[in-house]
Amino acid sequence: MNFIVMELSALTAISPLDGRYGRQTAELRDIFSEFALMRARVTVEVEWLIALSEFNLPELKDLSEEDKLYLRGLVSSFSVTDCQAIKDIEKTTNHDVKAVEYWIKSKMTVNEHLAAASEFVHFGCTSEDINNTSHALMLSSGRQLICSHLQMIIDKLKGFAHEWAGVSMLSRTHGQHASPTTVGKEMANVAARLEFAVQAIEKVKLLAKMNGAVGNYNAHTIAYPDKDWPAFARNVVENRLHLTFNPYTIQIEPHDYMAELFNAITRANTILIDLDRDIWGYISLNYFKQQLKEGEVGSSTMPHKVNPIDFENSEGNLGMADAFFTFLAQKLPISRWQRDLTDSTVLRNLGVAFGYSIVGYTSLERGMNKLRLNEEAIAADLDQSWEVLAEAIQTVMRRYGVPHPYEQLKALTRGKGISPETIHEFVATLDIPEDAKASLQKLTPATYIGLAETLAKEI
């Protein structure tokens, strides 16, 4: 078979994240691409070197502010051309982190002070000291993006909750008619769940280590035994890279925090899948209509259809994201003895998991913006469901000691279509105070909503 080698574009990309959904995931390229990883590695190497220059090592003079500015400029001005130069070095080294080291050294020939300090680039480090910190920096940015999208969804849900706080709606438990709620309260429920989920995502500490080949500062202490290397490493990780120092590791940081983070994101995504399915169902019940877009087609053969494609797209892509996150959370904390390489190739897929999440969020956001409440259909559904007042009546009967209230209402309503007249006739026979009887006679499915409206407005 002859294959055509095509130039990479949105139309020829293998992954839909870079193809069909390329515009939605474009902002992730600056966080999880090979370019972004290389830039993060340069960041770590530069900050490590600058910190070493301030550590009073006899053979390494403190760099001038101008030299430090130059080194940090390698990060701020890092370009695709620079990244390609590192990749070209890697063709020889066959080692990506070593290629970064050599590239930085090549940039330090601009003056004699930097040139003299060049052998302290990567001093005492194993490649994983650079990689684990780089991945943590990338995840920090990725987490911010995830949380910003989730916050937009929360804000939209809260808006719905307030707008529709008093719109009574039939509940369905087990798919069957149940005590009424309001549309706003149901939106508030999801907003509250998501807020807890976002808090869980935000509180995960992003851990990092810089303690050498097997986590014991072997190389550091043989060269400078009188230096407090754990304190130095902690300072670099926490005060320069703004991560959380992990003092006990093997060659790699064990990635337990990644599992915690990915599980937390998966939890948020699962809540949104639940929302996608519920809104899909409400659209099917005609509780919501979708704003039409000129020229858009719902079906290739049925012209009348307006399909809930945004919610279906969101559900599918969030499912893909959760599949990746779940695998990452299960795989990454496992390493044979002091290190194996299986985590390295897996970590290159961080952007894939985040990418499917972003596609899912943007699809959901787009779908939510199209929703238009159909209050007539919701009210009509409620007006056909007077049997849901059985809970209210039997509860009042319990209060006043009427015998067998549950059983009486079960016989009256279960599996039967109940009219307002049937309810009123039954209430009229009850041996309860007249004011209680009058209250029940005034009750309708639309007014039997408890504190739903208040709760929705308070979110």
Automatic annotation (TrEMBL):
<dbReference type="GO" id="GO:0004018">
    <property type="term" value="F:N6-(1,2-dicarboxyethyl)AMP AMP-lyase (fumarate-forming) activity"/>
</dbReference>
<comment type="pathway">
    <text>Purine metabolism; IMP biosynthesis via de novo pathway; 5-amino-1-(5-phospho-D-ribosyl)imidazole-4-carboxamide from 5-amino-1-(5-phospho-D-ribosyl)imidazole-4-carboxylate: step 2/2.</text>
</comment>
<keyword id="KW-0658">Purine biosynthesis</keyword>
<dbReference type="InterPro" id="IPR000362">
    <property type="entry name" value="Fumarate_lyase_fam"/>
</dbReference>
<comment type="similarity">
    <text>Belongs to the lyase 1 family. Adenylosuccinate lyase subfamily.</text>
</comment>
<dbReference type="InterPro" id="IPR008948">
    <property type="entry name" value="L-Aspartase-like"/>
</dbReference>
<comment type="function">
    <text>Catalyzes two reactions in de novo purine nucleotide biosynthesis. Catalyzes the breakdown of 5-aminoimidazole- (N-succinylocarboxamide) ribotide (SAICAR or 2-[5-amino-1-(5-phospho-beta-D-ribosyl)imidazole-4-carboxamido]succinate) to 5-aminoimidazole-4-carboxamide ribotide (AICAR or 5-amino-1-(5-phospho-beta-D-ribosyl)imidazole-4-carboxamide) and fumarate, and of adenylosuccinate (ADS or N(6)-(1,2-dicarboxyethyl)-AMP) to adenosine monophosphate (AMP) and fumarate.</text>
</comment>
<dbReference type="GO" id="GO:0006189">
    <property type="term" value="P:'de novo' IMP biosynthetic process"/>
</dbReference>
<dbReference type="InterPro" id="IPR024083">
    <property type="entry name" value="Fumarase/histidase_N"/>
</dbReference>
<dbReference type="GO" id="GO:0005829">
    <property type="term" value="C:cytosol"/>
</dbReference>
<protein>
    <recommendedName>
        <fullName>Adenylosuccinate lyase</fullName>
        <ecNumber>4.3.2.2</ecNumber>
    </recommendedName>
</protein>
<dbReference type="Pfam" id="PF00206">
    <property type="entry name" value="Lyase_1"/>
</dbReference>
<dbReference type="InterPro" id="IPR013539">
    <property type="entry name" value="PurB_C"/>
</dbReference>
<dbReference type="InterPro" id="IPR022761">
    <property type="entry name" value="Fumarate_lyase_N"/>
</dbReference>
<comment type="pathway">
    <text>Purine metabolism; AMP biosynthesis via de novo pathway; AMP from IMP: step 2/2.</text>
</comment>
<dbReference type="GO" id="GO:0044208">
    <property type="term" value="P:'de novo' AMP biosynthetic process"/>
</dbReference>
<dbReference type="GO" id="GO:0070626">
    <property type="term" value="F:(S)-2-(5-amino-1-(5-phospho-D-ribosyl)imidazole-4-carboxamido) succinate lyase (fumarate-forming) activity"/>
</dbReference>
<keyword id="KW-0456">Lyase</keyword>
<dbReference type="InterPro" id="IPR004769">
    <property type="entry name" value="Pur_lyase"/>
</dbReference>
<dbReference type="Pfam" id="PF08328">
    <property type="entry name" value="ASL_C"/>
</dbReference>
<dbReference type="InterPro" id="IPR047136">
    <property type="entry name" value="PurB_bact"/>
</dbReference>
<feature type="domain" description="Adenylosuccinate lyase PurB C-terminal">
    <location>
        <begin position="335"/>
        <end position="449"/>
    </location>
</feature>
<feature type="domain" description="Fumarate lyase N-terminal">
    <location>
        <begin position="19"/>
        <end position="316"/>
    </location>
</feature>
<dbReference type="InterPro" id="IPR020557">
    <property type="entry name" value="Fumarate_lyase_CS"/>
</dbReference>
